[in-house]
Design a protein that fits this description.
234 residues, 3 domains, 4 helices, rod-shaped
Length: 234
């Protein structure tokens, strides 16, 4: 009886040990499962946080891109408006600010007005102005003496149209007159006095919208020159 009881007690003890060992392993398994679950939950929460942060950053980036695009559109519109305004200003400038010959003409008008010339006189001159025509009529010639030295005398030149057109000739020496003679054209319509060195020489006078050509050549008579004026007569 005592032997059977001992065996029965041994089996009970081994069963309890087995149960304890199994409980330990189950507990360990549950612990690891719990740790894994907590890690999974933590990873899930972290992933969700990362996703929300990434979504917020993406939304912010999209808003920034939209703002930049709107700013670019605004700047492009301002640029186009500025270009249009500049083109209009350029057109107004080109229309109102004279250039070339007109600018030079207005400059002369301003000079004459600043010099005391009446504006009515300038206006009358403009109204009377026409296209100039080159005269091709008969030629009037006159011989005159070429002055020698540094100053021309009264006889070292000649005139036409009752003194309206005048010319003088002066040479520093009596030798090589053709090369050294300085011819000075003056008088009404000369735009001068204008001096040309060397013979032959010529100049165009403008009188009453007519161009008269005055040519100076060396005379066959030594020390003299010939002045030839093309007139407007028949």
């Amino acid at each position: 009886m005592s032997y059977g009881l001992g065996r029965h007690q041994d089996r009970g003890r081994r069963r309890r040990q087995t149960l304890v060992a199994a409980a330990k392993w189950v507990l360990i398994i549950f612990i690891f499962v719990g740790i894994g679950y907590q890690a999974h939950q933590a990873g899930t929460l972290l992933a969700q946080a990362d996703f929300r942060r990434a979504s917020a950053e993406l939304a912010q980036t999209q808003r920034r891109v939209a703002e930049l695009d709107a700013e670019r559109q605004r700047l492009r519109l301002e640029r186009d408006e500025a270009r249009a305004a500049q083109a209009q200003l350029q057109q107004r400038y080109d229309a109102n600010v004279p250039t070339g010959g007109l600018a030079e003409t207005l400059g002369l008008v301003r000079e004459r007005l600043a010099g005391g010339l009446a504006s009515e006189r300038v206006q009358q001159a403009i109204r009377d102005a026409e296209e100039t025509r080159r005269c091709a009529g008969s030629v009037v010639s006159r011989r005159f003496r070429i002055g020698v030295g540094t100053r021309a005398g009264e006889d070292d030149g000649t005139s036409f149209a009752e003194g309206l057109i005048a010319v003088t000739a002066l040479s520093p020496t009596a030798s090589d007159l053709a090369r050294q003679t300085a011819v000075t054209f003056s008088g009404l319509g000369s735009g001068g006095p204008v001096t040309v060195t060397g013979l032959p020489a010529s100049h165009v006078y403008v009188l009453n919208n007519r161009e008269l050509r005055l040519a100076i050549t060396e005379s066959p008579v030594r020390g003299f020159a010939v002045a030839s004026l093309t007139t407007c007569g028949g």
